[in-house]
Design a protein that fits this description.
With 105 residues, the chain is α+β, with helices and mostly antiparallel strands. The chain is 27% helix and 30% strand. Strands 1-5-4-3-2 form a 5-stranded mixed beta sheet. The protein is globular, with a radius of gyration of 13 Å.
Length: 105
């Protein structure tokens, strides 16, 4: 099973949003709904992988909401759930135009 299948299999069981994810999603400039995160997980793509993450292997996913807004979601699949570590709207000052590649600083 490849990484995207592992993520979606965990997501089909249950989502667990960390407090950090909820704080970021509820920031006034972001206001990302849980539905947008779910949509990004099921229809988005993996753009970075973090095999050494302290929370276990995690992934940065690029997705769009149903309204077309671009969002990034960092998630970590577990046996019984998908942990959502953070979600945010990427900015062009830190990301390339397609939001897949980080800009050099």
């Amino acid at each position: 099973m490849d990484s995207i299948e592992i993520i979606r299999k965990a997501a089909n069981k249950r989502f667990l949003f960390t407090q950090h994810a909820l704080d970021e999603m509820n920031a006034e400039a972001e206001l990302i709904s849980t539905g947008e995160v779910r949509y990004a997980i099921f229809y988005g793509e993996i753009i970075e992988e973090y095999p050494e993450d302290k929370r276990g292997r995690s992934y940065l996913m690029l997705g769009k909401s149903k309204t077309g807004r671009t969002i990034h979601v960092v998630c970590a699949p577990k046996d019984d759930y998908l942990a959502i570590i953070t979600a945010y709207v990427p900015s062009l000052d830190r990301w390339g135009e397609d939001f897949r590649v980080r800009r050099k600083r």
